[in-house]
Amino acid sequence: MEYVTLGRTGLRASVLGLGGGGHSRLGQKTGASADDSSAIVRRALELGVNFIDTAEAYGTEALIGAALQGVNRQDVILSTKKSPVADGQPISAQTLVAALDASLARLGTDYVDIYHLHGVRAEHYARAAEELVPALERLRDAGKIRFLGITEVFGSDTGHAMLARAVHDPCWDVMMVGFNMLNQSARERVLAETQRRGIGTLCMFAVRDALSRPAKLREVVAGLVAQGALDPAKIDLDNALGFLLEAADSLPEAAYRFCRAEPGLDVILSGTGNPQHLEENVAAIVRPPLPEPLRQRVIDLFGAIDSVSGQ
Ligand SMILES: NC(=O)c1ccc[n+]([C@@H]2O[C@H](COP(=O)([O-])OP(=O)(O)OC[C@H]3O[C@@H](n4cnc5c(N)ncnc54)[C@H](OP(=O)(O)O)[C@@H]3O)[C@@H](O)[C@H]2O)c1
């Protein structure tokens, strides 16, 4: 494993972080037992992964807590989250404080390294920043949170409207941003500024469905061609990224390597419930960047696209 400094937090994080959400939720969404999912967490630690992301909403905090029993707390960076909205209504600071306590209990710890406002929509940002950031700062002063984070809803906010605004506020130490080969718009809209400000970044959606399921990639590419965002003459509609297989064993491998090589992305999150995928993804992240002509071809094809997430 290789390690990176997570912006101004100074935390030394593994370049691959284990994601406890997404379509796998450590296998909880695909039929795994709690023991199977805990085994994924423990295997990740053995492979040198020290960054684990979860959220109240994922239902994986307790099994991560179980997997971390007996592990030295200082050896793991724990990231969890709480949505600023419940049933369409903004939550109160009091609700946030109670939610953190519940997360800490499930995780079996008395602090989290990063506590994020989860999936903040642009229209909710101003109120969340005004009402909830002071509460987060008090929790940090009380030692329950080390750093403040915020994550976007990349599935719908594919152009980063929320983070492009949040990045100018001084309170955020860490941001979780959607970025992958099919939508690189964070490069200009978010990562240019996070690098200037020393905000640590976590990459989500590196693979998701479109880069792990060929049928989904065909669907996304067909949609982009229909919108006029891709020139069909320049692309193999059945296998749009097949050219990467001359340098990578699989598209997920190419996808993680592409993100790892992106300046300004610190930790690349990988969500999996499959032990074999975990091994492959850890191996992928420490492979060299894709050869520059291939990386450039991905940028030439998809670099101007901001309308898809790969969801
Ligand atoms: N708004 C937010 O705050 C937000 C939103 C989304 C995600 N996140 C965080 O970001 C993390 C990463 O997102 P993600 O889980 O969508 O991650 P991802 O790593 O981009 O994609 C994971 C998907 O790819 C599959 N996969 C992984 N490795 C594979 C491989 N080697 N070969 C084939 N398929 C593979 C997984 O299925 P298998 O289980 O079969 O491997 C899963 O369906 C989440 O877990 C969560 O912690 C946060």
UniProtKB/TrEMBL annotation:
CDD domains: AKR_unchar
Residue ranges occupied by any NADP-dependent oxidoreductase domain in the UniProt entry: 22-290
GO cellular component, one term: cytosol
Domain of life assignment: Bacteria
Record GO terms (molecular function): oxidoreductase activity
InterPro entries in the record: AKR, NAD(P)_OxRdtase_dom_sf, NADP_OxRdtase_dom
Gene3D superfamilies named in the record: NADP-dependent oxidoreductase domain
A Pfam cross-reference name: Aldo_ket_red
Name of this chain's protein: Aldo/keto reductase
Organism lineage string: Bacteria, Bacillati, Chloroflexota, Chloroflexia, Chloroflexales
